[in-house]
Amino acid sequence: MNDLMRPKEGEYAPFYAGYISLVIGQDLPKILLGQINAIKEHFEKVGEENSKLAYASGKWSQKEVLGHITDTDRVMTFRALCFARGEKALMPGFDQDEYVVRAKFNAVPLVELLDDFEKSRHALVALMKTIPNDAMLNIGNANGFDVSVRALFNIIPGHAEHHLHILKTLYARG
């Protein structure tokens, strides 16, 4: 991926640096679409019943992790759209734990969660293709921190990579 999509320090809150480091300099649409297959392959091995299990008490189930990834994709995508279009309003944060509790992901069939994730990813990649290059540099404020459009587009797959690693390691042992 070209330098246009490489966010610089100061274009995102420090706590996103770990996510960005997982994908920086890579072809973001390719990663985003590739993660669909990685997620599907993981859950094919896990199955419906085991996807409702957490690796430890107080941790999310695998279905809840998948739902969280999709919710976070949507929140970050909305922010990117708003900032790309010149929105100046401050965007709120979101309580990921409250979202997971209220979503009741364990009651949703796994096949529907996977379909939702896949469709949201295709919509995200389609949106990315329509954003002008100069708009990738736009900066807005979300949850009290400045963030650029291109940083958000790096955070999304980096966040998913983080959770894929957890699914493949901690949940495999649980």
UniProtKB/TrEMBL annotation:
Signal peptide: none annotated. Residues 38-166 form the DinB-like domain. It comes from the Bacteria. InterPro entries: DinB-like, DinB/YfiT-like. This is DinB-like domain-containing protein.
